[in-house]
Design a protein that fits this description.
Helix content of chain B: 10-25%
CATH architecture of chain B: 3-Layer(aba) Sandwich
Number of helices of chain C: 27
Strand order of the largest sheet of chain B: 2-1-3-4-11-10-9-6-7
Radius of gyration of chain C: 26 Å
Largest sheet of chain B: 9 strands, mixed
Number of strands of chain C: 28
Number of domains of chain B: 1
Largest interface: A-D, 43 and 42 residues
Low-confidence stretches of chain C: 230-237
Radius of gyration of chain B: 16 Å
Oligomer: heterotetramer
Shape of chain C: globular
Low-confidence stretches of chain B: none
Bound molecules: adenosine-5'-diphosphate, magnesium ion
Mean pLDDT of chain B: 95
Number of strands of chain B: 11
Strand content of chain B: 15-25%
CATH topology of chain B: Rossmann fold
Chains: A alpha+beta, B alpha/beta, C alpha+beta
Mean pLDDT of chain C: 95
Helix content of chain C: 25-40%
Structural class of chain B: alpha/beta
CATH superfamily of chain B: Class I glutamine amidotransferase (GATase) domain
Shape of chain B: globular
Strand content of chain C: 15-25%
Strand order of the largest sheet of chain C: 8-10-7-11-9-12-13
């Protein structure tokens, strides 16, 4: 079962990376850029009988290791048909 | 020979290269600010080490798209000599002036250590003073030095003898254990097809005085100094 | 502007870390109730971290003057004249609490903070040293902390571009709940170009430069002034994030702006941020300051005056410019793509006047803020100490397996190689590093002169635990001896004093004794203390760390080429032991690793002898008489010799015989001050003997280098270990935990 | 207009970081983990009149800077209602 974890900095935590990339893009002529933030995407394939079961497992992984609760929030998303394609194309 | 040392926000080997060129080689040298679109009167441009723009997105990514790099592109196309070390190598790859890319070290940690390099190609202006198979000692200092390129491009690199330095043992054996960052084929430095643009992860400027890390790095500069011909072309051998 | 601010009450003040007495004092000094914003100012500036409430009376005891001192304590960092118009600027600081909460960012921002302390003085940082203490590395939680802290230091220092050339990493269970992360930075500046954190010149504009302000680390200073309990992790929102790239730009911009002559004074916004700068800078100058907070560059929306004043966002400075030179400041910072915004003015009245969108939100005499309360709290020798000291380690059986004992010591995580950490640090940027990490002290040349600097940090919590006064004096001796063993004459010292809660009389007694010990040693060695840091409240759930003063020393070598390293250079060199025979197993690494005890008495310390030994070592190095010099420290003589055998580029064995009083384990592993081993090429032996005779110190030849083993004979006993075994233990002792 | 870019290593390029995280998770008892890969998520807010227009702009950003074609593939996704919530909670 494939799910995807998005790990992002918690609100209020300075996004050093995002700010630098944003400045660079504006310098490259993207004046229409309003905001940019950088996080991690973690594509996980886990043995589970259902998406909810996979979610529970991956949530444990996030709590144990994947996200740093001091700095980061995470969301777990099922990988839907469309994005599944994109993902599998990566393999 | 007139040198230009490029300074990006976050560059830190600029002063070290400047020091070596002016105090050790006694050659004229100036700094080139990253916003400049004209390199002025220089024979060799150095892209030094550091963390340009913090390397926050990918090492060298932002710098690789800066105004000065466009000037360097023209300069190189006309045969100007370009030496990129460490972050400079990363920038040259990001700018497409050299093939491939530099990934995070396989150990996932930064590495600052002495390395041995075996010289594969002595037909470049940077290595013409060296023997084939000669082993040089030079430090590395980077977190993203794992050279990566796809199979066709690697075949091309080989065909055109673009691989210049490979990580090796003190005896010159190219082994896995001698590879500090997981680099493909132990690649530590490459040139472009024309041979006038060199990118390397090790720091020659840190091995240019006996008191600090030996003098093997100086050999590169000494090769360069003799390479310039009156008409503006350069010698490969 | 109607901000719904909490009503100021004693309870609220208490919640912010102030006591009832302190609240009274605020009422008296203001003659009225403080506003909420004003209360915030007091709570931050009167925190232990900023005000040194409990420590100030003791710190006065430290010797801070000397002919070379250009700047003693009281500024962002101390400065020492090193000749040829150059000054060395240095300081050490702790970031213990933030590193426990978030090891990577905590350690990274610790590096950022100390770098700023150096370059606010106008100096370019040339070296970082990190002194770290953790719990037992067998504990995965500890390993996580070690890995995070080391990579945080690596990331910040490397990205910024300052080499990390030295430091130490030691382990003891007492640090499990509260690791120590102390970082020292050393910089160079022209002696007549030192900048200070002053707000001189009525009417001069005040600029905010650097990163934007967010809600990071609000009440960080207060946090560093409280002990941890099990809820430590709930304090997380205060975590600050480092931005070494911006710091590098800030460095270049600040130095460039200073060079224009437009800068009058400058201070980094560290603990207590804007509040600290806007009160301390005018307080030093006898002026006042008015600021408009809405001009402060902000990263987040809707920040209150309270938040803007107390934010500890990183990579920011407050700069007082010369009136009329605003354009120069703006131009330089624009070049480096940094904010430089005028936020205020230096005023005559010695008040800090804070406005937000034109409304006054605080008006406080700057002296009231900057001169916080001082306490002379009771001290008491801990009840357990006498018993611990009465213990005689020689009542324990001597080891039957001497080689195993030696190999075990070499592999103890505290003694073992720290290459795993140092190879993650850039050690060479600047191409000044003549001696890399791994010897007694790092050596850096000073370009443009013949000189070099030697730098080292040291501290031994176990020794201080059983005898704070002598243990602290011994830390000073060891750090200076390390510098001397590299050939440097110690010229200045900084310290970081890591202790538990000063509200406990036993802890405060340890602290007071420690200060006395440092002061005695510094006076005897004529090394002034020019700056430092006190970190109290290093405890979790009532368990304090070992009392740990960490000492950082800078030394000067007149001739950069005449320096020494600790490892043997070739076979056939004679080995000499300099210094007294007196050693002890009390508080030793051996007693801890072998028997799990921290007890006994420390060896005697003769400061006059210490000084003569160091002078003799330096003279021998500068005369080119020795090929290696190594200070005898943790693990005693046997470990010192073993280190000289295996820590260099080539393994070189040794055969020595030591006729010294006492049991074999005492002779081999006993620790004591003022001892150094050196190696001497045979053709220099006569010259060396003559030099030692002149030095008037005890010394003797003990053996010769060479072979594949380390063999030590004493009396009828002997220990003989293959170098490969020693080397393996030493190389893997720490690293195997981190793999 | 908010869109999200997912940047992942191209197939064939070893994901050393993902492998290390995977090993660590297995060590923590997640034997049911089959595969894990780490990439970047870049949340972009761009001035644009429509999602397709935003996509075009962000695609340019990717080509110019955000992804390195030697190493990385990227996909651009609109931010849907559900994930929008999660994202906006981060501001
Ligand atoms: N243990 C100490 N020994 C000597 N000086 C000290 C010590 N602790 C603090 N100081 C000095 O007191 C002053 C205030 O220190 P501190 O508040 O830590 O500065 P900062 O604001 O840079 O953190 C500094 O000049 C510092 O050097
Ligand atoms: Mg300071």
């Amino acid at each position: 079962m494939k799910v995807r974890v998005l790990v992002r900095l918690r609100p209020g935590i300075m996004d050093v990376q995002g700010a630098a990339v944003q400045r660079a893009l504006v310098g490259l002529g993207f004046g229409d850029l309003r905001d940019l933030r950088v996080g991690k995407v973690i594509d996980v394939d886990v043995d589970a009988s259902s998406v909810p079961a996979a979610r529970v497992r991956v949530d444990e992984m996030c709590k144990k290791l994947l996200a740093n609760p001091v700095l980061e929030d995470y969301t777990i998303e099922p990988v839907e048909a469309s994005s599944l394609e994109a993902t599998s194309a990566l393999r | 020979m007139k040198f230009g040392v490029v300074v990006f926000p976050g560059t830190w080997s600029d002063c070290d290269f400047h020091h070596v060129v002016s105090e050790v080689l006694h050659q004229p040298v100036k700094y080139v600010w990253h916003r400049e679109r004209d390199l002025g009167d220089v024979d060799c441009v150095i892209l030094p080490g550091g963390f340009s723009y913090g390397d926050y997105l990918r090492a060298g990514a932002v710098a690789g798209r800066s105004p000065v790099v466009e000037a360097i592109r023209d300069f190189a196309a006309k045969g100007g000599l370009v030496l990129g070390s460490c972050n400079g190598f990363q920038i040259l790859c990001e700018a497409g002036l050299l093939p491939g890319a530099l990934l995070r070290n396989e150990c996932l940690q930064y590495r600052c250590q002495s390395t041995h390099l075996v010289v594969d190609n002595v037909d470049t202006p940077f290595t013409r003073g060296l023997r084939p198979g000669q082993v040089l000692t030079m430090p590395i200092s980077h977190g993203e030095g794992k050279y990566q390129v796809d199979a066709p491009a690697l075949a091309q690199l080989r065909e055109h003898h673009q691989i210049v330095f490979r990580y090796a043992t003190a005896e010159g054996a190219v082994t896995r254990a001698a590879n500090p960052n997981g680099s493909l084929e132990n690649i530590a430095g490459i040139v472009n097809e024309a041979g006038n643009v060199l990118g390397m992860m090790p720091h020659p400027e840190r091995a240019a005085e006996a008191v600090v890390g030996g003098t093997d790095g100086l050999l590169l500069f000494q090769s360069l100094l003799g390479s310039l011909v009156e008409d503006g072309t350069f010698l490969k051998r | 502007m109607a901000l719904a601010e909490p009503k100021v009450t004693l309870d609220l003040a208490r919640g912010l870390g102030l006591t009832a007495d302190e609240y009274d004092r605020i009422l008296r000094q203001l003659g009225r109730e403080p506003t909420y914003t004003e209360l915030g100012l007091f709570s931050a500036l009167w925190s232990e971290h900023c005000a040194y409430k409990h420590s100030r009376v003791f710190l006065k005891r430290l010797p801070t003057a000397g002919p070379r001192v250009l700047q003693g304590p009281g500024e962002n960092a101390g400065a020492i004249d090193i000749g040829d118009g150059w000054a060395v600027v240095f300081k050490m600081e702790s970031h213990n609490h933030p590193s426990f909460i978030e090891p990577f960012q905590g350690a990274a921002t610790g590096v950022g903070g100390i770098l700023r302390d150096i370059f606010t003085m106008g100096a370019r940082p040339i070296a970082i040293l990190d002194s770290l203490r953790f719990g037992d590395p067998n504990d995965p939680k500890v390993r996580h902390l070690v890995a995070g802290v080391v990579s945080g230091i690596s990331w910040y220092g490397n990205c910024f571009g300052c080499p990390t050339v030295g430091g130490e990493i030691a382990f003891a269970p007492e640090y499990a709940g509260n690791p120590l992360v102390n970082v020292m930075c050393v910089g160079l500046v022209r002696a007549d170009r030192i900048f200070r954190a002053r707000a001189d010149g009525i009417g001069n504009p005040v600029f905010y430069v650097g990163n934007k302000t967010g809600r990071d680390g609000i009440h960080g200073a207060t946090m560093a002034s409280a002990t941890f309990d099990d809820k430590a992790h709930e304090q997380r929102p205060t975590v600050q994030v480092g931005d070494p790239f911006t710091e590098k730009l800030l460095l270049e911009a600040c130095l460039e702006a200073m060079a224009t002559g437009a800068v009058v004074g400058i201070q980094d916004m560290g603990a207590a941020g804007l509040a600290c700068c806007t009160s301390e800078m005018p307080a030093r100058s006898g002026t006042g300051m008015e600021v408009e907070l809405s001009s402060v560059p902000q990263r987040e929306e809707g920040m209150t005056p309270y938040e803007l004043l107390l934010s500890e966002s990183q990579e920011r400075m407050l700069l007082v410019a010369a009136r009329g030179r605003e354009g120069d400041v703006r131009r330089v910072f624009a070049k480096w793509e940094l904010d430089a915004v005028k936020v205020g003015t230096v005023i005559r009245d010695s008040d800090l006047i804070v406005r937000h969108q034109g409304h006054e939100v605080a008006r406080v005499p700057v002296d009231a803020l900057a001169d916080g309360p001082r306490y002379e709290k009771p001290t008491a020798e801990p009840a357990w100490l006498a018993e611990r000291r009465a213990f005689d380690p020689l009542t324990l059986p001597p080891p039957e397996d001497l080689p195993i004992a030696l190999v075990a010591l070499m592999g103890s995580p505290t003694i073992a190689s720290k290459d795993w950490a140092f190879r993650q640090y850039d050690q060479q940027v600047g191409i000044n590093t003549l001696v890399l990490p791994g010897s007694d002290a790092a050596v850096l040349r000073v370009k443009g002169t013949r000189r070099a600097l030697a730098v080292a940090t040291d501290g031994n919590g176990r020794q201080v635990d059983i005898d704070p006064r002598r243990g602290a004096a011994m830390a000073v001796c060891e750090a200076t001896r390390n510098v001397s063993c590299a050939g440097g004459e110690p010229v200045g010292l900084t310290d970081c004093l890591n202790f538990g809660s000063p509200e406990r009389p036993e802890i405060l007694w340890q602290f007071a004794e420690t200060i006395e010990g440092i002061a005695e040693a510094c006076r005897a060695l004529e090394v002034p203390v020019v700056g430092g840091n006190v970190s109290f409240y290093n405890e979790t759930s009532g368990q304090a760390v070992l009392p740990t003063p960490v000492v950082g020393v800078v030394g000067v070598l007149e001739d950069a080429n005449r320096h020494a390293t600790q490892w043997f250079k070739s076979p056939g060199h004679r080995i000499a032991l300099l210094g007294p025979d007196d050693v002890s197993l009390g508080g030793s690494e051996y007693l801890w690793t072998r028997h799990g005890r921290v007890a006994g008495r420390l060896a005697p310390l003769d400061l006059g002898l210490e000084r003569r030994v160091q002078r003799a070592v330096r003279a021998a190095i500068s005369a080119g008489l020795v090929t290696a010099a190594h200070d005898c420290a943790e693990g005693g003589l046997a470990v010192t010799l073993a280190e000289s055998c295996v820590t260099g580029p080539a393994r070189i064995g040794a055969e020595v015989a030591v006729e010294a009083p006492g049991r074999i384990d005492l002779v081999l592993f006993g620790e004591g001050p003022s001892r150094v081993i050196v190696s001497v090429a045979p053709e220099r032996a006569r010259g060396f003997e003559a030099a030692m005779a002149e030095a008037a110190i005890p010394w003797r030849w003990i053996g010769v280098t060479g072979g594949e083993r380390l063999v030590i004979r004493t009396g009828r006993a002997a220990v003989s270990v293959g170098l490969a075994e020693i080397d393996n233990a030493w190389r893997s002792g720490f690293e195997r935990h981190m793999a």
